């Protein structure tokens, strides 16, 4: 732990900078909306004031796949929540239940993540890690809950379909 004025150095083969965001909730808080880990919304993305919706990085929502309230930071989530909120605004009432996915390219690695792997109790690797073409499948109680793929787009797309349709239970010891 470094104090604010301390300067230190250390050597390492690799360093990873994990940078997240802190949502700007001041406006919502000042407006009297409920705030949790972000602006609290329900399954229809409505805030504590039903006339106000919140979406994207700033919105903490009940996520059906996580069975918990989460705040997601991805372009997919922001877009899909925008569509869902718009539908609810015009009276086509629908809960938010899009499968979370994220994609990024880092040099020669195309990383694609589907689902939420938090709480998994088993992982299965498919592919060949040394060649940078592999996927990690995350299971919880014999159900697939997430897949991280590197240069294996077919695995990613299949995972999204399985998660979206609920066809992700493999049975005891399967996978
Ligand atoms: C460095 C970095 C890399 C990323 N890479 C990826 C990636 O590879 N793939 C991926 O899926 N996601 C990635 N993300 C995340 C992705 O950018 C966000 O999840 C997405 O932009 C969220 O969209 P949003 O509309 O919720 O919020 P934002 O895009 O942050 O838009 C919010 C807007 O609201 C404005 N705003 C805030 N407060 C106020 C206020 N009080 N009044 C008026 N305007 C206000 C902000 O200025 C901003 O323009 C990355 C994020 C970062 C920071």
What does this entry look like structurally?
The chain has 175 residues and is an alpha+beta fold. The protein has two domains: 26-89, FAD/NAD(P)-binding domain, CATH 3.50.50.60; 101-165, FAD/NAD-linked reductase, C-terminal dimerisation domain (Enolase-like, domain 1), CATH 3.30.390.30. The chain contains three helices and nine strands, in the order H-E-E-E-E-H-E-E-E-E-E-H. It has helices at 26-30, 75-89, 153-165, and strands at residues 35-36, 38-40, 59-63, 68-70, 101-106, 109-115, 122-128, 133-140, 143-150. The strands form two sheets. Strands 5-6-9-8-7 form a five-stranded antiparallel beta sheet. A four-stranded mixed beta sheet has the order 1-2-3-4, with no helix packed on it. A hairpin with a 4-residue loop joins strand 3 (59-63) and strand 4. The longest helix has 15 residues, at 75-89. The chain is globular and about 50 Å long. It starts with 25 loop residues before the first helix and ends in a 10-residue tail after the last helix. The model has no long low-confidence stretch (mean pLDDT 91). Bound molecules: flavin-adenine dinucleotide. The site of flavin-adenine dinucleotide has 13 residues, from helix 2 and strand 5. Flavin-adenine dinucleotide binds next to helix 2 and strand 5.
